[in-house]
Amino acid sequence: MRSFSFQLIAPYYDLLARLVFGNTIDKAQKHFFSLIPKGSEVLIIGGGSGRILGDLIKVAQPNKITFLEASSNMLRIAKKKSARILKNNHRNTEMCFIHGTENDLPVYKEYDVLITFFLFDVYPTHEAKKLASKLSEHLKSSGVWLFSDFCLEGQGFSFLWKKVLLVAMYTFFRLVSNLHNQSLPDYQTIFKELHYLPVQQQYFYHNFIISLIYRKLLS
Ligand SMILES: C[S@@+](CC[C@H](N)C(=O)[O-])C[C@H]1O[C@@H](n2cnc3c(N)ncnc32)[C@H](O)[C@@H]1O
Fold first, then answer.
1. For the chain, which end, N or C, has fewer CB atoms within 10 Å of the first or last residue's CB respectively?
2. Which residue's CA is minimally distant from atom 4 of ligand 1?
3. Residue whose CA is closest, atom 20 of ligand 1?
4. Parallel, antiparallel or unpaired: strands 41-45 and 64-69
5. If pLDDT is split at 50, 70 and 90, which confidence band does 1 have?
């Protein structure tokens, strides 16, 4: 059961992310957008304030984006942002906003592309596993899954500073969002168990951030 909420932090989330990571988070998120087939139907889960919508619409030119977000404050910001982006870019991408979680997705609906950016890090492994398994039901067998998140790699000092920064971030979000998770879930095993294969991957911020594009292995 989710006990955390990004309601209070919603207006400041992007600013804080930029203060700590500069534009690296944006770079990591848009890294594989050019590999999304044009005209796709995309599902973004936990898209926050919609910071990636501009690049997604411009680069991937999707037909339709479904934006699923648990925080109504985040969703409100994302809605405003998307209206501005579509107007300024003269695009007619259809937008569908859903306030809720994976349990509120239309049953049996499948998408060409799933996007989960910095979503799994808020869950411990057993919950992230359930979330990934549920989301996987909504991806077409020919579809792709774009994933970005923090990762703990390296040894010695290279590991230490990442661990310290991660603990600081989790402590901060515990205070402002009641987030109780304190460590990264085991993404690799989760995707492997669901029979997803990383097609390409790219590290950012001295290997503290990873972006991957996954495809499901056909059985
Ligand atoms: C750490 S923030 C990341 C936001 C955005 N993806 C970004 O990178 O800027 C996680 C977001 O996911 C939302 N969220 C968490 N679990 C969710 C779920 N199961 N379904 C939909 N949204 C969820 C939170 O409300 C929050 O806005």
1. N
2. 48
3. 101
4. parallel
5. low
